[in-house]
What does this fold into?
Amino acid sequence: MLAPSLWIELGFATELLLKCHLATAGLNESQVKKYGHDLKRAFDKAVQTGLVLELVEDLRDLVMLLWNSHKDCSFRYMPDGKPFQSSKEVDRVLEVIGELERTLRPKITVPEVS
It folds into this structure.
C-alpha cells in the first residue's frame, strides 16, 4: 500500500486543477469556492463549461476514486486497502493529472508583481 500523503496530494492536485479550469471558464472566486472539496461536482461543472481532455474518462475515473475520501477528509485516516494498491495505478493517475495541467497551462495568466 502506498503512503497516505500521496493520496492527499493527488486529491488536492486534482481539486486545484479542476478549480483552475472553472476560474478560466469564467466562474468568479466565490462561485469556485462553492465547490469546496467536492471533486465530482467540480468535475461535472468543468465538463459542462468546456473542459476538453483526451483522457477525460480517465479523469472521471480518478475523480470517482478520490471523491468520497477527499470530500469528507477521510483520506487522512486511510482505511485498509484504499486507495492505490500498486505504483502502476499511481503512474496512470499522474499521467491524467499531468494532461489536465498541460491543458490548463496556456489558459493561465499570472499577474505581474510590481
